[in-house]
Amino acid sequence: MTSNKPTTTSKGIPLTKQVSMEVFFSIKNASPEWDILMTGKNVFLSRPFLEAVEENPPKGMRFVYILLYKNNLPCGVALGQIQHFNAEESIPVEEKEKCFFTVVSNNLKQWFSKKVNFNTLVLGNLMLTGEHGSWFDERLVNEKEAEESLGKALKVLPKLLAKKGDPISVTLLKDYFYKRENFVNESFKEFRIQPNMILKRRPEWESFDDYLGAMLSKYRVRVRRAFKKGTPLEYREMTLEDIRTNQERIHELYLKIAKNAGFNVLQLNPDYYAGLKEKLGDKFCLHGVYHEEELVAFYTTIHNGEELEAHFLGFDEGKNREFQIYLNILYNIIKKGISLKVDQIVFARTAMEIKSSVGAVAHEMYCYFRHNAAIANQLVTPIFNYLNPSEDWVPRHPFKKAD
Question: Do domains 13-193+365-372 and 196-363 have the same CATH topology?
């Protein structure tokens, strides 16, 4: 009779008869196979990017890295981030007019949020929007096998972390573009948060003028009005030295935006941008926006193969109203994406309507979580859905119909 137990001859920790894994708590200790798998693939799972994050982490964040093998051949990688999640600190209550319903809603949110307080293992990256939690070699592992392997790895990992003195209450699988039934079958609960806003570049867009030519006239007028208002602004791409020199002001501008976010789990390390520039070089760009030699805004982009990712930014609210800084930043990112001839520009979450007005389209993202306690696993879903900030917005359609 054949045993169904995993063999003990697999490399690392056996998960199935064919699949095993190695676990590392620093990317510096990860096996060279990690680089063999990820060279030329997703930059957000590359060693240089992960080193930049690990060396300049958000407050309280720890890391775990998983290298998977099939029949002793490296077949996939996964990133885990460990973060304490306190809903009371992460989800602000509304500060609108104090009508009866707002007061009741705020009180309920405060009560519920005190119940959502746990150490979380995140498969994915809390600093990004999109599928950046794992990668598999499709020649060795199909999609179903990949999900099953991750499911088994996520049963073993909490035990390893508990032995290490880092007990986990909740496991979160972050940002998938479509439903993953295998995760639901592993008792994960499905939920959705704000969509990922993505602008796909049309093949005929060779320049920003081509992009403008594809727009309806009222949206072209909007672009020109934004450019006119932003005439006094100067944009400068910063070197590593520039970033370090202006680090305090950059962080101050970032905090002005971060504190107003509807859902804010973490706070960036002030050294993060310099770390990215040092590790990623030209793939990472930080542009400063100046008015009369004063740094009034900044924005960052990361070139990830066929995608340009709009990363963190910050700006002075008063100057933004005066010069339409945010809208001008979006147009500048589009200019860069077109010049790089990427397939798409990923604008991530938040500010969906204004991103929609420049051509980005909303893509729903699915997340999955599982609480270790069965009863809590049933209760967390409705609580999380209630606390999850919603944003009413109207999708815009700035382009003429394609021929």
Answer: yes
The whole-angstrom separation of Cα 107 and Cα 111 is: 6
Q: Do 253 and 297 touch, CB atoms closer than 8 A?
A: yes
CB of 23 closer than 8 Å to CB of 13: yes
**pLDDT over 90 (residue 88):** no
Hey, CA dihedral for 16, 26, 259, 294, is it positive or negative? negative
At which residue do the structure tokens 């199935």 appear? 16
Q: What is the 3-state secondary structure (H, E, C) of the chain?
A: CCCCCCCCCCCCEECCCCEEEEEECCHHHCCCHHHHHHCCCCHHHCHHHHHHHHHCCCCCCEEEEEEEEECCEEEEEEEEEEEEEEHHHHCCCCCCCCCHHHHHHHHHHHHHHCCCEEEEEEECCCCCCCCCCEEECCCCCCHHHHHHHHHHHHHHHHHHHHHCCCCCCEEEEEEECCCCHHHHHCCCEEEECCCEEEEECCCCCCCHHHHHHCECHHHHHHHHHHHHHCCCEEEEECCHHHHHHCHHHHHHHHHHHHCCCCCCCCCCCCCHHHHHHHHHHHHEEEEEEEECCEEEEEEEEEEECCEEEEEEEEECHHHHHHHCHHHHHHHHHHHHHHHHCCCEEEEECCCHHHHHHCCCEEECCEEEEEECCHHHHHHHHHHHHHHCCCCCCCCCCCECCCC
| Rounded CA separation 198/339 (Å) | 17
Residues 358-367 pLDDT 10s: 999 999 999 9
Domain residues of the chain, as ranges?
A: 13-193+365-372, 196-363
| Contact between 288 and 298 (Cβ < 8 Å) | yes
pLDDT at 96: 46
User: Tokens 């290490």 sit at which residue?
Assistant: 164
The tokens describing 150, both together, are 């991750």
Q: What band does 3 get if pLDDT is binned at 50, 70 and 90?
A: very low
Structure tokens at 292: 């009369």
| Fold of the CATH domain 13-193+365-372 | Aminopeptidase (3.40.630)
Bridge-based pairing of strands 170-176 and 117-123 is parallel
Euclidean distance between CA atoms 238 and 287, whole angstroms: 6
Class of domain 196-363: alpha beta
β-sheet with 361-363: strand ranges across: 233-237, 284-291, 294-304, 307-315, 344-348, 196-200, 361-363
